[in-house]
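Input for the complex:
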Amino acid sequence: MKKYFALLAVLALTSAPAFAQKKPAPKATAKAPAASASVLKGKAIYTQYCLTCHQADGLGVDGMNPPLAKTDYVLGDKTRLITVLLNGLKGVEINGEDYHGVMPSQAYLTDQQLADVLTYVRGNFGNKASAVTVAEVKAVRAAGKK
Amino acid sequence: MKNTLTRPLLLTAALAGSLSLYSLTSRPTVAPDPNNAGLKLPAGFGALVVAETGGRARHLAVTPQGNIYVKLNKPKDGKGILELKPNATGKATVSGGFGSYGGTGIYAKGGYLYASSDEDVYRYKLDAKGEVTNPTQPEKIVSGLLNRGEHESKSIVLDNAGNLYVNVGAYSNSCQVKDREKGSMGRQNCPILDSAGGIWQFRADKAGQTYGSGTRYATGLRNVVGLDWNAQNNQLFVMQHGRDQLHDIFPAMYDTKQSAELPAECLYEITKGANAGWPFLYYDGLTHKKMLAPEYGGDGKKLADPKYLEPAAAYPAHTAPDGLLFYTGTMFPEKYRNGAFIAFHGSWNRAPEPQKGYYVVFQPFKNGKPSGQWEVFADNFAGSAEKVASGRADHKPCGLAQGPDGSLYVSDDKAGTIYRIVYNQK
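Predicted:
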């Protein structure tokens, strides 16, 4: 599966110059507003539901609430990350530090809200990871209900 | 020729100088660091960095000989307790360590050093030099204390009748069906209180006691980290960490500003059987009222059942009181004698409002009761006003101890600095 995507990526890259002559500019402008609207929504959700514990700078609280900046939990496996939001988390070690805080389930948020806030978290606080889509959240939520 | 003459003269002068200084102060003066270790203090006080431990220094104890024992939250190089030996300048050097467990509590009394992990309490014998004689074979005084990973630290103190007091914090914020979940209501009669959320009493000199064999001394206390025995009225005082997240859990009843200012952090005067009312109430430090918790039918206006213990004093919300010490020394001016110092670790739960705390407070006492307004005694552990507001403090005060000369020692579990505050003014 991975190889297949890699192949696609290579194909896309090698064929990119051909497209580059024609459509890149309109594509970029068409996509940018959508992305930033999602980021704005993600930021609003972060401020409302996450900020108290993870703080405005996303660095968490010593010994209690984990940081969201540059940690494998945030940047790594999306399924695990989505599961943390759906099920909550308690007691975790990150980069050699123990965190004892209790994170409650955020399953009351919609798939869209979860996708938006995770996309925001993965793209802020010094993070540069790919977006989380509604489909990905939906899939993890469905798998958890089985 | 010149040298041989001036040397004895200089020596005599130095001797005379130090003698006259000694007779004036009647004790050797400890020189503060030039910048008072970065702290802001009342006039006449000074501070020095005793040592940098580099560990998460929770509570600390100072023996009559001036040796300092520091409990680390997490062992450093396999050592959960650091031993510091004083030197002539008033500073100290880390001379060793023992105890492979992390934890918070440590207390020296009656020729013994007591220390706690998050499950057990140990006792070490101190010799005439204030040194531990059995670092690898302590007596296990209490074992099996409840640790469910939330409010897990076990603070300890002794009274003057051979009893040991241990905090067992509630493994919950407000006893909700689902801890900290938005809108989740309180569990009926809060079964957590059966095994946590209070103070347990044990014998201090008896090895092999278990959690179950202890006496439940006080209940309805969410989590206590700072506690001390008041010798003046022979009573236990504790600082409770008040509940978090009123806005996050009940956004319709509390806005973020109210949530930052509620509830107060409270000092309680404890007698056997006392019930401070957690989780059924919280204390509003602005109106001085015990409020019914929203998890148990409160709405931000309904008062709680008046039967619960009234706080002895209240302090700004969420500022996390981690150390309590009744000052019995004579180095500090008269007003401090038998009053309480409280180390506020600093808040996180005031966000998005600016954070607060990261200071040591003085609470005046009279005849064993709080009397008069508290004041910030030692400030700027954080390093700047901006670092206070953001919560990104350089140092976070946690433990307090009194030295044999009356110096006040403060531990910091952020950077591991050990401070000593002295009074030098005549």
